[in-house]
Amino acid sequence: MGSAQLRAPQxxxxxxxxxQLRSNVIPLHAQRVQLEIFLTGTSPDAFRNHLATLLHSPLxxxxxxxxxxxxxxxxxxxxxxxxxDFTLHTLIATMSEATIGTITRIVR
Length: 108
Prior knowledge:
By secondary structure, the chain is of the alpha+beta class. It is built from two helices and four strands; from the N terminus they run βαββαβ. It has helices spanning 44-55, 84-94; strands at 32-40, 63-68, 72-79, 99-106. Strands 2-3-1-4 form a four-stranded antiparallel β-sheet. A hairpin with a 3-residue loop joins strand 2 (63-68) and strand 3 (72-79). The longest helix is centred in the middle third of the chain and has 12 residues, at 44-55. The termini are far apart.
């Protein structure tokens, strides 16, 4: 009768040099765009109400920063290019009094 022999796992898996191993991670170099809008209002309360409306809307997650100017507030959205259509439509529906500024590619 034969006896069973225990084999180590490396006996079944061939040695592959690390240079030949392929990574299953796909590098994503997603481009982002910055959309700039301006909110105008007559009082600080109007500015706060506009910003509160934007922050509580679906667009709130895209706001990267805001900047108060003399008579208006500048709001920057950091979005993926494929979300630009959704962002513009939602912005027009949510804040029709906003002035749409520039759209620029964010280079990293």
